[in-house]
Amino acid sequence: MASITLSAAELLLHRLQALDVAYIFINSGTDYPPVIEAWAKARATGQKVPELVICPHENAAIGMAHGYYLGTGKVQAVMVHTNVGLANAACGVINLANSNIPVLIFGGRTPISEHSHFGCRNTPIGYGRRCATGRR
Question: Where in the numbering of this chain does the Thiamine pyrophosphate enzyme N-terminal TPP-binding domain appear (predicted)?
Answer without folding.
Answer: 8-116
